Amino acid sequence: MRKRLVFDFRFDPLEKKMSNNNVITFSDVLDAKEKISPYVHECPVVTSSTLDKMVGRKVFFKAESFQKTGSFKARGALNAVLSLVSKSPEVHGVVTHSSGNHGQALAWASNMVGLDCTVVVTKNTPKSKCEAIKAYGADLVFCEPTYADRIKTCNKISEERSIPYISSSDDYDIMAGQGTIAVEFLSQVPDLDAVIVPVSVGGMAAGIATAAKGIKPAIKVFMVEVEGKMSEECLRAGERLWPNPPRFLDSIADGIRVQQLGELTWPIILKLVEKEVFSVKDADIVKAMKFVFERMKLVIEPTSAAGVAAVMSQRMASMDPGLKNVGVILCGGNVDINHLPWY
Question: Mind listing the pLDDT tens digit for each residue in 119-141?
Answer without folding.
Answer: 999 998 888 889 999 999 999 99
